[in-house]
Amino acid sequence: MSLSARIQAMSESPIRKLTPFAQAAEAQGKKVYHLNIGQPDVPTPKVFMEQVRKFTEPTLAYGNSHGEEVLLKAIRKYYLGLGMDYALEDIYVTNGASEALGFAILAICDPGDELLIFEPFYSNYSSMAQMYNVQLKAIATSPENDYRLPGEEVIEKAITPKTKALLLNNPGNPAGTIFTRKEMEMLVRIALKHDLMIIADESYREYVFSGSMISFGTYPELAQNLVITDTVSKRFSACGARIGYLLTKNKELCQQILKCCQSRLCCPMLEQYGAAALYSTPPEYLAKVNAEYKKRSETLKEELAKIPGLQFSKPCGAFYVMVKLPVDDAESFATWLLEHFDLDGDTVMIAPGAGFYLTPGKGVDEARLAYVINCQALRRAIKILGAGLQAYPGYKLK
Amino acid sequence: MSLSARIQAMSESPIRKLTPFAQAAEAQGKKVYHLNIGQPDVPTPKVFMEQVRKFTEPTLAYGNSHGEEVLLKAIRKYYLGLGMDYALEDIYVTNGASEALGFAILAICDPGDELLIFEPFYSNYSSMAQMYNVQLKAIATSPENDYRLPGEEVIEKAITPKTKALLLNNPGNPAGTIFTRKEMEMLVRIALKHDLMIIADESYREYVFSGSMISFGTYPELAQNLVITDTVSKRFSACGARIGYLLTKNKELCQQILKCCQSRLCCPMLEQYGAAALYSTPPEYLAKVNAEYKKRSETLKEELAKIPGLQFSKPCGAFYVMVKLPVDDAESFATWLLEHFDLDGDTVMIAPGAGFYLTPGKGVDEARLAYVINCQALRRAIKILGAGLQAYPGYKLK
């Protein structure tokens, strides 16, 4: 009995694959600074648990497949505040943004269809595409060009009759890039010209530290070709709630997404009530969190600039940066940091870059850093990274 | 821009598709008895919310992709109590049993591969198979033969080189059947002979009102060919928690399932803590609930027997029965009950049978009833069903 080819082709998460080494290091008494995972240290607004604790129904019953109305209304209001008018029936609550992305891929693509992405990209996009036998087709961006988009002709050249959508993450994980207005307009133009869908993962919308972020939802001409995926995970530091959602004004797509929702009955109820309450958080919360991340991004830049031979993307948003390391293989280096290195008992965990690329051989000397720890811890973590490089047998500047 | 063929081929849930009619009836002031959905009215054990309320971490962070240890340990202990020894690393927490089934299908089958099922079957199996482009191949059981399994040669004849697994639900939704020891042994023998996996959905294990239920997990020779899916939804009347899980001793499969788990990061945290606490519920809880359902199954039989021209499956377990109605089209009748009928202001909602069959034309005069309401309400609901039939223009015994 052999397992499916598609499951065997799925790669392990670059964010989580080194976890056993981190656990072993921690078991040895080392302190590990986790820059590998986008798990913010920011407290979840208290309204979340306050709302959850209020649940007194005797039976925790199934809810709407579509999503609980209180949450749908909260999401609608939040989007109205951003100038986007989504009706309740245009919004579908999902098990994290992951499920929203999965439903969008499944509804738009048949096996063998193609999705265009810019690499590096959020590694789980590739797992989701593989689950549904959809081909990702990667268009390169590079550390040398600060991960900016290529020209229109390069993108159009990648489009084939099998291309169904552009899968875009803005602000971007892992490189922290934000599309400029010119880039946005180009992407909208391409989607309309070739009648492609845009699947826009805007989970990091509130984390903008340089420039400004424009939502694809603000282009009315794109309405029928757009799916936005979003989540409370990062916005409200509630990753463990697993409450995401999908928005689209394409009614035909809505009808199909509802079938997907029905097939798994509903999303967790308590977490939906909590998530709805999160949207009553006063705007000062997000402003304060944003200011904190901006400070972290500055600290990060300052500290990374001190490391000889290390290049890094401009941390514009989404609390991630890609770094190009002066080593041959970032995964070996990341493993070595956990297994064989410490600075006064401390080490650091980073996510190897190759997992954020589709093209074999790309990103092998890169890594993603999530700056989700406070400035002091961040300074310490980057100092450890620098010291680790100096001590690493494979350090190229030796 | 056309949507995918696979999503368009997905059928709407027969359990939920008439919901708009029910809502309209309720808006008109009608009381609707819901026999369409397996949503128990039994209270969720209080320990669930007690445990949830204890959560005081400042940040609701991501958990283990695999599942929280406290829940894994609770599940392990529950299975040990049933004589099945699953290690923690053989258990994977999922978003409901639905996700467990999806992961199992995805990990075992490539597009075009076949899964054998007995029809009628739980309708969402078909949605899940369609999502992953897997072909369900149905083997008939019939109301005339009380939905018992056919002989070994009939099942073996359906096996092709593309057959990867048998997808089995025991106790069975929608017909309330329970496999006999002889049937179990036959299924195990077939799986081993043809090296097929058995995906055993044993969500209703505790709901047995006649005969006894044997788990596929008690056949040691089947260990490498078995995946069990399970959930707290029905067992503890916690459907809204969406906490399911998957168990397998096949290490290769475990490794692949972990990748699926990582691709969606983790399951909702609060609900996992609550679910773990559910397993500390004293055994008297399940015994009491079981006794209540047994009473309901007796009431149901008694009342259904009074309706002329109606045949029904023996309600052995899983709080469902299939009924064969003296009408041409059960969906038209079910819709009519909601739109045009009431008995002193009350009506009843049932799930049309065709959605539980794969073979076109089958089950059109059948419906599934979930006996998840108390005996008094159940008597009333079945009385309404009988009166509805008498009044229905398409009633065949007129």
Describe this structure in words.
Chain A has helices at residues 5-9, 19-27, 47-53, 69-81, 96-108, 124-131, 152-157, 181-193, 251-263, 269-278, 283-304, 330-340, 375-391, and strands spanning 31-34, 91-95, 114-119, 135-140, 163-169, 197-201, 226-231, 243-247, 311-312, 320-324, 346-349, 351-352, 366-370. Chain A is α/β, with parallel strands linked by helices and 398 residues long. Chain A has a seven-stranded mixed β-sheet, sandwiched between helices. A four-stranded antiparallel β-sheet of chain A has the order 9-10-13-12. Chain A has a two-stranded parallel ribbon with strand order 1-11. In chain A, helix 6 links the parallel strand 3 and strand 4. In chain A, helix 4 packs parallel to helix 10 (269-278) and helix 11 packs parallel to helix 13 (375-391). At the A-B interface, helix 1, helix 3, helix 5, helix 6 and helix 9 of A face helix 1, helix 3, helix 5, helix 6 and helix 9 of B.
Give me the Rg of chain A, rounded. 21 Å
CATH superfamily name of the largest domain in chain A?
Type I PLP-dependent aspartate aminotransferase-like (Major domain)
Separation of the first and last Cα atoms of chain A: 50 Å
Largest interface: A-B, 79 and 79 residues
Task: Determine and state the CATH class of the largest domain in chain A.
Answer: Alpha Beta
| Helix share, percent of chain A | 25-40%
Largest sheet of chain A: 7 strands, mixed
The DSSP helix count of chain A reads 13
Shape annotation of chain A:
globular
CATH topology type of the largest domain in chain A: Aspartate Aminotransferase, domain 2
What oligomeric state do the depicted chains represent? homodimer
Please state how the strands of the largest beta sheet of chain A are arranged side by side: 2-8-7-6-5-3-4
Going by helix content, strand content and strand pairing, the class of chain A is alpha/beta
Instruction: Report the count of strand segments of chain A.
Output: 13
Order of helices and strands of chain A: HHEHHEHEHEHEHEEEHHHEEHEEEH
